[in-house]
């Protein structure tokens, strides 16, 4: 199990190292503006082919790159209904605080759970390999977090039920 | 071989140009100013001038060798030519007639013209009009499908090569009546202004960093697909070579001699390419020892060697 996760993360890391070659590029459509081309999508020649890395049907990662920006969208493994609800709530909590993360996108791309938007300005202020480390670490931590949350929900549920039903003994 | 000397001028440098005697360097520290530093005797760089006129980031700077003028272009669609009067640098506005950002600039070999590549998919050739005492531009329009990322002059002062984000490299004639003299022997003898001499479509990704060799017989440019292209015998029957490498793409090149080219790019390690006696180009080595941790992610801009 851990073996495939290592391969999946290494693949994503290598793709990000190639895709994160960003540079400052002023907008071709609007004068004096500088917009992330991957979000604008008006000039197809400035976009690179999107890369989809799938671990299985439930887990995948879409990497959309352009000349000055990069979008990484993740679909996190959700085994049952409870994990579904937990993932949605947890990632919504993070996305609403996107300013604190700087590279996080406020809304995930359609069909995915969470998205990152890295621009050339992020690469100028921060180091590229550290950004990649952050994203890969994030992916590892998400799985751990969701499992912990699920465990604590089940534990709490069991405790509450035991306490409640004691009165009927 | 490690770097000869390392000096941190700013967190990010957008573009730079050496002074004619290589004692000073003009650079843009990723904002709307141009800082000029001078190397003092005890090997320290001191900031001597700050050129402040642009509203947005300065994307290109070039320092002419014989006439000691600096030209700067910026994302705010403007360009200034700076002349040194006693101790101050005085700007002169250039009417570029651009409606998008300017991306790159280079003085022509005779320094009577300069070329500006822009995001408006045009190239401006500017020359000085003595009667009106200002710089006037002529545009090369409708030739490029996307932003012009890099321009380079041929030693004959007439041919100009450009690269663009549409992946193509084009060579134009920029003959201007009254500024250039007809060279009866040159191949560009009967070409008009803006006429496209050649179009090279080798890269399927964005093209950057074009430079001519010192003789003007060859030019080299890089593509974002981690390849470097060399075109020899520029003229009616050019021959092209491409060298692919496994590392991250290059961003700019420099001809050290007729047979040696240095490329810099996203690997933060300059690569040396050489041509053997038969004219076949190949990768020779990296200039720096391979570092495990790379420094800032900005691509390195070219540095002229002494």
Automatic annotation (TrEMBL), chain A:
It is found in: Cytoplasm, Cytoskeleton. The keyword Manganese does not apply. Its main location: cytoplasm. One of its GO terms (cellular component) is Arp2/3 protein complex. Pfam families: ARPC4. One of its GO terms (biological process) is Arp2/3 complex-mediated actin nucleation. GO terms for molecular function: actin binding. It comes from the Eukaryota. Keywords: Actin-binding, Cytoplasm, Cytoskeleton. Belongs to the ARPC4 family. PANTHER family: ACTIN-RELATED PROTEIN 2_3 COMPLEX SUBUNIT 4, ARP2/3 COMPLEX 20 KD SUBUNIT. Functions as actin-binding component of the Arp2/3 complex which is involved in regulation of actin polymerization and together with an activating nucleation-promoting factor (NPF) mediates the formation of branched actin networks. Seems to contact the mother actin filament. This is Actin-related protein 2/3 complex subunit 4.
UniProtKB/TrEMBL annotation, chain B:
GO terms for molecular function: actin binding. InterPro entries: Apc4-like_WD40_dom (IPR024977), ARPC1 (IPR017383), WD40/YVTN_repeat-like_dom_sf (IPR015943), WD40_repeat_dom_sf (IPR036322), WD40_rpt (IPR001680). WD repeats lie at residues 51-92, 141-173. Its main location: cytoplasm. GO terms for biological process: actin filament organization. One of its GO terms (cellular component) is Arp2/3 protein complex. Component of the Arp2/3 complex composed of ARP2, ARP3, ARPC1/p41-ARC, ARPC2/p34-ARC, ARPC3/p21-ARC, ARPC4/p20-ARC and ARPC5/p16-ARC. This is Actin-related protein C1. It comes from Forsythia ovata.
